[in-house]
Structure to design on (181 residues):
């Protein structure tokens, strides 16, 4: 199987190349005010708006650095309505492919409920490469946001309950400007 490798922080990751429709340069992205962590905004792909997630910010809380090798990985994502939609994943050091059998990846020995997208690891020289499962990458609140209707309904925020469950909540903005009434 062919994998596309990239970097998050200082670590290497891989996703199945057949899940990637295109590898795009880092395009101009329209930022979304009040967007949850990791949701960067939307970009124009041949006249269609496509949401973009920053994998580095989603996983480590820091935005991807703008480098020559920072790319947008365009994948098909199944939204909360079960529809296939394009989704851009921003990642650093997108420079290589790797042909390995899935059986060569082994359990890392740790399973994190908060990171179900982290799959098995390939003990590759000089460092391990972890399989990132894109189908488990997007949390439920962000998945609901990724349908175009939710993007248009913003602004919004993600609220985490005391039980650790996240929900998407619209922020109602009311104007005090008499010209808006």
């Amino acid at each position: 199987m062919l994998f596309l490798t990239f970097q998050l922080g200082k670590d290497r990751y891989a996703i199945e190349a057949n899940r990637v429709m295109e590898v795009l340069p880092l395009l101009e992205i329209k930022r979304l005010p009040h967007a949850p962590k990791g949701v960067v905004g939307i970009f124009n792909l041949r006249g269609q708006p496509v949401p973009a997630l920053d994998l580095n910010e989603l996983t480590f809380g820091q935005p991807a650095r703008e480098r020559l090798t920072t790319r947008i990985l365009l994948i098909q994502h199944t939204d909360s309505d079960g529809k296939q939609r394009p989704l851009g994943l921003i990642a650093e050091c997108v420079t290589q492919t790797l042909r390995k059998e899935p059986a060569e990846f082994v359990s890392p020995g740790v399973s994190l409920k908060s990171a179900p997208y982290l799959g098995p690891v390939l003990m590759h020289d000089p460092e391990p490469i972890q399989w990132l499962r894109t189908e488990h990458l997007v949390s439920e609140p962000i998945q609901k946001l990724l349908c175009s209707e939710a993007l248009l309904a913003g602004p919004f925020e993600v609220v985490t309950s005391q039980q650790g469950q996240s929900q998407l909540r619209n922020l109602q903005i009311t104007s005090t400007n008499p010209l808006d009434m």
